[in-house]
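Priority: medium. Attachment 1 of 2:
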């Protein structure tokens, strides 16, 4: 199995970061095109990335404002049963985000592309939280 890890500081209150990583309104600002769900253990999220990418996930960790994790249950083959999660910690006046996308079946090309894409999306998350910037979904990978 292979895992993706990213760590980044964000100049925003931990509660605001938690909201951005765990609520549909927050996720739609930086990752998904449209999502629905509720940040509570066992709840199903709908994660839409366009007409051909109507994915599902289950909340497997939800400890506000410190931890949030989704297990992907419907997706492209490589993403199915992987876990997308966040650990938040206050350090030196910043919220440190420990991001992971774990349990990939193998470090193949899709894994490597996704690793790059996560870095781009997390940068958009930081810009959204620190500067209030929103990037239209279709333009996010070029932002």
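Attachment 2 of 2:
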């Amino acid at each position: 199995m292979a895992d993706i890890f990213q760590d980044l500081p964000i100049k925003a209150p931990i509660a605001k970061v938690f909201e951005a990583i765990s609520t549909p309104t927050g996720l739609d600002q930086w990752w998904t095109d449209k999502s629905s769900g509720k940040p509570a253990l066992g709840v199903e999220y709908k994660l839409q990335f366009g007409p051909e990418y109507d994915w599902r996930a289950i909340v497997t960790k939800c400890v506000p404002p410190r931890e949030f994790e989704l297990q992907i249950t419907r997706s492209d083959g490589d993403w199915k049963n992987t876990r997308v999660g966040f650990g938040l910690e206050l350090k030196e006046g910043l919220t440190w985000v420990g991001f992971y996308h774990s349990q990939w079946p193998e470090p193949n090309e899709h894994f490597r592309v996704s690793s790059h894409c996560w870095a781009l999306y997390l940068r958009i998350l930081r810009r959204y939280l620190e500067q209030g910037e929103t990037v239209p979904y279709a333009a996010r990978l070029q932002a």
